[in-house]
């Protein structure tokens, strides 16, 4: 892993966290089954559903995660003082319109 690549570090940590969550969920659901609080079929379905959501197999969960990622990215770029491509394109458009107005009003 490249220690100078924060995106790669984030991805590796995310994968590790996902694996830990699934392992912990399996452990907890097994405990619930043993204590009679949860049916084995329900436990299996719960683990499968959460695993699918974490892997992106659940379209709604994937959309929600995408929206959250967009918000986090926007906040990160704002904190860093950087502009998104959309903002740059809007500024270029404004500059083009201003330049055109200047050319039109020049003698």
Compute the average pLDDT.
Answer: 80
Share in β-strands = under 5%
Number of domains: 1
General form: elongated
Q: Report how far the terminal alpha carbons are from each other.
A: 61 Å
Explain what this protein looks like in three dimensions.
It is elongated, with a radius of gyration of 24 Å. The protein is built from four helices and no strands. Helix 1 packs antiparallel against helix 2. It has 107 residues and is mostly helical. The longest helix is centred in the N-terminal third of the chain and has 30 residues. The model has no long low-confidence stretch (mean pLDDT 80). It has one domain.
Task: Please render the helix and strand layout as text.
Blueprint: H1 6-35, H2 40-55, H3 59-80, H4 85-105
Brief description of this entry?
By secondary structure, the protein is mainly α. The protein has 4 helices and no strands.
């Amino acid at each position: 892993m490249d220690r100078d690549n924060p995106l790669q570090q984030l991805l590796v940590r995310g994968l590790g966290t996902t694996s830990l969550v699934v392992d912990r969920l399996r452990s907890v659901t097994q405990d619930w089954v043993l204590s009679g609080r949860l049916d084995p079929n329900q436990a299996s379905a719960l683990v499968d559903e959460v695993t699918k959501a974490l892997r992106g197999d659940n379209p709604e969960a994937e959309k929600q995660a995408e929206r959250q990622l967009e918000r986090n990215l926007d906040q990160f770029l704002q904190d860093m003082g950087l502009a998104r491509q959309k903002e740059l394109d809007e500024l270029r458009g404004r500059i083009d319109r201003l330049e055109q107005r200047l050319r039109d009003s020049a003698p």
